[in-house]
């Protein structure tokens, strides 16, 4: 009984949120609330320091957004954004005993109103020209080359030689020809993010129900990895 009471007390002690977050969902982009819940989980349940928690969240955020193929801010900039957001939360929490009740409630309400917003770390297109080459290279960059070549050794072949000699390398010329035919998809990616966000909001506002929908879609894709007909779905309904 004592253990249960201690667990309940700990769960109810979170300020402005109902529960923490063990992991970011792979099916939806993190909101400001998700980031806060994740930070508090790392701080209070995993016992990490503030800097360690922020460092972990920054890495997870960059990885999620990078998987969409969009250019994110540098990690130092993302770290600044996360730290600023968490500091704001801590300051509001520190002043929760403010004698001016209306001022305190207004401050908390204004902060919570931003929870549904995506924690956007996409780089401002107007500032792209100021970025260096390393800002466009991540751990996922190799998948771009792997998609161009059946044999990974082909792209490694020209990457390992001096760039001045690429013009005479057949593997490089092949990659160059393919890249020149690729359509720029920045606008497409942004539209996809916008559509997914709007769909999430229209389907349900309950986080629990959202996760159930994502799980159902994932299960459906495993059973029907192709464009399924109505008869296919009825026939395999019990497998979902």
Principal-axis shape equals globular
Q: In total, how many beta strands? A: 0
Number of helices: 11
| Helical fraction | 55-70%
Mean pLDDT: 76
Strand content: under 5%
First-last Cα distance: 39 Å
Outline the low-pLDDT stretches. 1-12
Structural class, please? mainly alpha
Summarize the biggest pleated sheet. Answer: none
Give helix and strand order, one letter per element, not per position.
Answer: HHHHHHHHHHH
Q: What is the radius of gyration?
A: 23 Å
How do you describe this structure in short?
This protein has helices at residues 2-11, 32-45, 50-66, 75-94, 101-112, 141-148, 152-159, 170-180, 186-203, 207-223, 230-235. Helix 2 packs across helix 3.
Give a description of the structure:
The protein has 240 residues and is an all-alpha fold. It has a domain at 19-124. Helix content is 59%, strand content 0%. The chain has eleven helices and no strands. The protein has helices at residues 2-11, 32-45, 50-66, 75-94, 101-112, 141-148, 152-159, 170-180, 186-203, 207-223, 230-235. The chain is globular. 11% of the residues are buried. The model is unreliable at 1-12 (pLDDT under 50).
List the helices and strands and how they pair.
Elements: H1 2-11, H2 32-45, H3 50-66, H4 75-94, H5 101-112, H6 141-148, H7 152-159, H8 170-180, H9 186-203, H10 207-223, H11 230-235
Question: What descriptors fit this protein?
Answer:
single chain; 240 residues; disordered N terminus; 0% strand
């Amino acid at each position: 009984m004592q253990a249960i009471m201690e667990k309940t007390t700990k769960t109810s002690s979170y300020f402005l949120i109902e529960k923490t977050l063990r992991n970011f969902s792979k099916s939806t982009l993190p909101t400001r609330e998700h980031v806060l819940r994740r930070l508090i989980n790392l701080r209070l349940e995993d016992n990490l320091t503030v800097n360690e928690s922020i460092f972990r969240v920054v890495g997870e955020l960059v990885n999620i957004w990078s998987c969409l193929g969009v250019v994110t801010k540098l990690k130092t900039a993302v770290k600044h954004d996360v730290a600023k957001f968490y500091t704001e939360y801590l300051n509001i929490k520190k002043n929760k005993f403010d004698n001016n009740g209306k001022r305190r409630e207004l401050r908390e309400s204004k902060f919570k109103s931003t929870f549904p917003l995506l924690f956007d770390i996409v780089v401002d297109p107007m500032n792209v020209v100021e970025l260096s080459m390393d800002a466009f290279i991540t751990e996922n960059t190799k998948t771009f080359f792997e998609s161009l070549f059946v044999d990974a050794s082909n792209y490694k072949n020209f990457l390992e030689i001096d760039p001045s000699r690429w013009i005479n390398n057949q593997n490089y010329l092949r990659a160059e020809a393919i890249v020149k035919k690729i359509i720029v998809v920045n606008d497409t990616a942004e539209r996809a993010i916008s559509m997914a966000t709007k769909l999430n909001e229209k389907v349900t506002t309950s986080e629990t129900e959202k996760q159930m929908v994502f799980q159902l879609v994932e299960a459906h894709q495993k059973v029907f990895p192709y464009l399924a007909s109505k008869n296919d779905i009825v026939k395999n309904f019990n497998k979902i």
